[in-house]
Specification:
The complex is a heterodimer of chains A (229) and B (331). Chain A is α/β, with parallel strands linked by helices and 229 residues long. Helices cover 38% and strands 21% of the residues of chain A. Chain A has helices at 3-25, 28-31, 37-56, 68-77, 79-86, 94-99, 123-131, 133-139, and strands at 146-154, 164-170, 179-185, 196-206, 209-219, 227-228. A five-stranded mixed barrel of chain A has the order 1-2-3-5-4. In chain A, α1 runs antiparallel to α3 (37-56) and α7 (123-131) packs across α8 (133-139). Chain A is elongated, with a radius of gyration of 24 Å. Chain B has one domain (39-328). Chain B is 74% helix and 0% strand. Chain B has helices at residues 2-8, 13-32, 39-72, 75-83, 86-96, 104-117, 121-134, 136-147, 152-174, 179-182, 199-231, 244-258, 265-269, 277-286, 292-301, 306-328. The termini of chain B are far apart. The chains are: A alpha/beta (229), B mainly alpha (331).
């Protein structure tokens, strides 16, 4: 039996199984954005095919054995799979939000076109409405606009005094490109970082920024898909 | 030397068992200890895994094309390409990136294979550096990301033009006359001459060989990128945001650290609204050419000092291009 091919088939099979698991269980939403969900299916199918060809040709090439370096390289390639087993269901939270920027201090020409539909005010809409009155008008954000948002608690250094913030990440291709958008909550009670909350209330304009004056704050579990797109 | 020789020896069952025990121990430690639930560890694991999960299928796609080139494209095609003057090969290869819709991880194995089969090294490099910027998916994502700001045409044309210029300049400056002076040798370089009966097996062998070889460097580079993203706040560079030169240099540094896929980076660049447009362009052109993950991939593919030479060429070209863009478009 060709031991080298057997070892390679095992590594290909493990990665194929990992991609199948990501795709079928829906866990790929934790790591990828909708634009790249296809990569999990692509990886699963191609690696499964390559593993099967290796298994089908196990008797070819004599009793060829892999070198110690090759085995070490294959082991290195399996580190991400082991990391996911060791730390299941990891989340981006307040620490990651503090490390990433979300376009603070923007130029007026940098404001994007409104993405919100009437009645669907999101985190990014409130952020950009604070930056541009034209944007606020276009999405219908004024002092007193009702909102209903779910996110996790953060405490940005630049947030208004006496408030905490509700934050969500917007993802494009994968969690590495996640961009946090936060909205300040003007509430008497504080909450611990990374606590998931559903907050209903109205937007209030304070010194040019919109903050939420809550009427109802409810602690909720983290959603299956923690990102917005 | 002794360590290298040890790695070349056939692995014994004891080697494999030791590695399996170490891996099991680390997994068990992660599951049982509180370290697995600290925000730093969670952030690192999530970013690390997401970069690898996104990048490896592109490596696989590149390995697939590379194996097709190796096994199914006859030698005479490459003899004809090699006979063309470099002055023609170089721009043609750079424009060839328009037709290859993968990001940077996929273009490296393909370029390596093209060079090892006979394409001039300068042309192979130009293709490798141009395709992650010029390919249609990347240009389309740039259009979508900047359309909200009414700058889709300017940013997309600017990105394509500067990317093309950088690819040709770097190909011309770094490319050598001989492939062996540029490429690191690999054991599977000697696997040529496939008869029709074993072509399918050879195709899968090359596919798996490239995937395993490139994949481990993607893993190491992604770990470095995740570590930097977890440890260093991006706001550190916010203070230089409005200065065009420092802003461009700062966003090139961020592009290196983030190691984003070129098909997604425009959506991140558009969020750096405190930086001038020229600096955002620098981010969009520098990142697909040099980043933490790619440094390891280049180090494994090319000979010593390749990354240093590439950085020496890329920084002034991108900086000058971004300042020109700022002067022409953003005012």
């Amino acid at each position: 039996m060709n031991v080298r091919r057997l070892v390679r088939a095992s590594a290909l099979g493990l990665w194929a199984a990992f991609f199948w698991w990501l795709a079928i269980s829906g866990e790929m939403t934790r790591y990828l954005g909708p634009r790249t969900y296809w990569v999990a299916w692509f990886g699963a199918i191609v690696l499964s095919g390559a593993a099967l060809v290796h298994i089908a040709t196990l008797r070819a090439g004599g009793s060829n054995r892999p070198t110690a370096g090759e085995v070490a390289g294959l082991a290195l390639l399996l580190v991400p799979v082991l990391a996911v087993i060791a730390v299941p269901e990891p989340d981006l939270g307040a620490l990651a939000a503090g490390r990433k920027t979300s376009g603070i201090g923007s130029l007026s020409s940098s404001i994007p076109q409104p993405a919100a539909k009437p009645g669907q005010i999101g985190f990014s809409d409130i952020f950009y409405a604070s930056e541009s009155s034209e944007y606020a008008t276009a999405v219908g954000i004024v002092d007193g606009t009702p909102v209903d948002l779910t996110g996790f608690v953060t405490h940005p250094k630049r947030g208004p005094a006496g408030t905490f913030s509700l934050t969500r990440f917007y993802v494009s291709c994968c969690a590495a490109d996640a961009i946090p958008y936060s909205v300040a909550i003007d509430a008497a009670e504080d909450h611990v970082d990374d606590t998931w909350l559903r907050i209903e209330g109205v937007l209030r304009e304070r010194a040019g920024d919109f903050v939420i004056e809550p009427s109802n704050i409810k602690e909720v579990g983290s959603p299956k898909n923690p990102y917005l797109y | 030397m002794a360590g290298q020789l040890a790695l070349r020896r056939p692995a014994s069952a004891r080697h494999v068992l030791t590695l399996a025990l170490i891996a099991s121990g680390l997994v068990a430690l992660g599951r049982l200890s509180v370290a697995g639930s600290t925000p730093e560890v969670e952030t690192f694991v999530l970013i690390f895994t997401s970069i690898v999960v996104e990048a490896l299928p592109f490596v696989l796609l590149g390995a697939l094309v590379s194996a097709l080139i190796e096994v199914y494209v006859p030698d005479r095609v490459f003899h004809r390409i090699a006979a063309l003057p470099v002055g023609l090969q170089l721009p043609a290869a750079a424009f060839g990136g328009l037709a290859f819709p993968v990001c940077e991880c996929g273009s490296v194995p393909v370029a390596r294979r093209l060079i090892s089969r006979g394409m001039h090294p300068s042309a192979g490099l130009a293709f490798m550096l141009a395709s992650p910027i010029l390919n249609p998916i990347v240009l389309a994502s740039t259009v979508v990301a900047y359309s909200g700001r009414g700058l889709a045409l300017e940013m997309t044309v600017g990105r394509a033009a500067l990317g093309l210029l950088l690819a040709m300049a770097a190909g011309w400056a770094i490319g050598t006359d001989q492939a062996r002076d540029l490429l690191r040798p690999r054991p599977d370089d000697e696997l040529h001459g496939h008869d029709d009966t074993n072509k399918r097996v050879a195709f899968v062998e090359h596919l798996a060989g490239d995937f395993f070889f490139m994949g481990r460097f993607v893993v190491v580079g992604s770990a470095l990128a995740a570590l930097l993203q977890t440890a260093i706040p991006q706001s550190l560079v916010g203070g230089v945001a409005r200065t065009p030169i420092l802003g461009s240099l700062a966003l090139m540094g961020i592009a290196y650290v983030l190691s984003l896929c070129s098909e997604a980076d425009a959506f991140v660049a558009v969020s750096f609204t405190q930086f001038p447009l020229g600096s955002q362009l620098a981010f969009l052109v520098f990142g697909p050419v040099v980043d933490a993950k790619l440094s390891f991939l280049y180090g494994a593919t090319f000979r010593r000092r390749f990354v240093t030479r590439l950085v020496i060429v890329a920084i002034p070209v991108v900086l000058a291009g971004s300042l020109w863009f700022e002067a022409l478009v953003a005012r």
